[in-house]
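In keeping with the milestone schedule agreed at the kick-off meeting, the structural modelling team has produced records for the first pair of proteins. Each record is given below as a sequence line and a structure-token line. The laboratory manager (R.T.) confirmed that both were archived under the project's standard naming scheme.
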Amino acid sequence: MNEVINSGEMKDSYSIYHQEYFIMAEYRKLQTENLQGIYVIPSYENSLLWFGVIFIRSGVYKGGVFRFTLTLPEKFPNDGVPVVTFTSKLYHPAVNATTGVLNLNEVFPQWDRQQNHIWQILKYLHLIFNNLNFKSPANIEASDAFKNNRKVFLEKVKECVMCSIDHIYDDPPVDDKHYITFKPYDPELHETAKNEMLKLSKTNEGSHGISWVQPGSFQSFSKETT
């Protein structure tokens, strides 16, 4: 009896270890992609929950700083598509107005662990802010306004962009060491950190570049490495 129990416990432990390894491998793959303006990190408490923020650099949402979470299925990567939920208010045809969930059905109808990766979802995040036509919009009102009443659409987009900026320094809604936070620019603190990043970038040949937020604004900018 004990042997059966121990065998089951060992199998469960192996499954958890294998999943954690797979998740960390997915996270490391992000470093090989040029995901400009997107920052994500797994929760300190739960590797199935990732915190993220995206800085929009162009288009009608330019200037927006939108927070989101990426939730992996319990049996990831073998069960279901990860869920992206915007925690910042976002008026967008592909984002459910009530839940904040991004509709991924058009691009990820199912998840294939051999073909699909988390970095692909993050790449798609870039796309949705420039391509606003969707076959199956999650927000019918926003989709209709974009197609038929552009003035109203742009006004609501501007409203959510300003709202995202107003809340950029909010206290974390959760007690997690890895929650991404921002503080007002302090030259004594941040100038030193920026200079250290510049020095570090010269020795990291495998990196695409480094990013920080420009003093006096919420616009992130990057220095590409060569």
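The second protein of the pair:
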Amino acid sequence: MGTEIDVFISNYTLVDPEIYQLWVEGNTASEAVSILNQRGLGQLTGASLELIASDVLDHYRTYSLVEKLLSNPNKLQEQLAFQIEPQTRQLLIEKYYEFDDEVVRELIGKKLSSKHRKDLDEVAEKTGIPLKSCRRQFDNVKRIYKMVEDMSGPVVQNIQNCFYLSEHIAKKYACIVFLACIRFETKRKLNHITFNCWKRCTEAIMDHWTNKGAGVDNFDTEHDKDFFTELKDIKIVLEKEREHKHLVCLSVKATLLQKCYLDLDANFKNYNRAILQPVTNMHRPRDVKNMFVELTSLSDALKQANWSAQELEIFLASYTQAGAELDVLRDSVPLKSLWEKYMKVISECLLAMY
């Protein structure tokens, strides 16, 4: 009498989130088996190491085939070779396009060329992220940048529409695209700035200093040229330094620690000029690109004077408000608006970098 065997056949593609995550992270199949074994999968399920290895290899083969479609999520949406449920399809895309902040921080400021792709072993060694994962992240950044760099409209929405990514991940890629388009200086004296800091700074700039919301053909990856042309007009605040200082010191005297208040009183001129220095030449592209180098110098000076982030925030709020109360700005709605837009970004960037 023959042995009875139950066989179940399905054309649905099964995705194990845990194994998929290990694959996305750049682990080899044998490394994935070892990690799963260390996590107690065998004890939990009663499966032998050989069975776990067989299952992992099967999943890895599937993911390698699906990867060809993940480079163009539109194809994954339309293809018929793999029967994938919508929520599983979204998981495949989201996880594949996630990235490690420390890896992408190494890519910011570099050309996304084949030459730099060959140098990713240095990035892998520095960050401790597997080389395969570094290559995936490099390719994804390059792919998204090339796709949306010349598109009009909100860059976050463009990324979401083209790659079916969540808003959270799309915003992170938008930061990279913006930095690549504007070509800010991100290396000289700025290597200590984390990706999250860059994201916070670029989001502030995109919200207040670009053509965002200016019309159907607007680009929020391009500076608002009218804003930068007119920005030099607020240099007039420098001529009111004594009055400005008086208003600021009066406002913060009761809230700042005495050591910070005394430092502000002694060094207001230096801090004031450091905040307003970018205004002088910011209509020239090369000076916009170096803005963060100048702000870092101010941030370093405040740190040396032992200012806390909270005290910096108090000072910047008072500095902005006091500037708006100067008669040269108070009596001119356009100048006051310029001042507020300028200080919103400068304040956000300084706080992010602190």
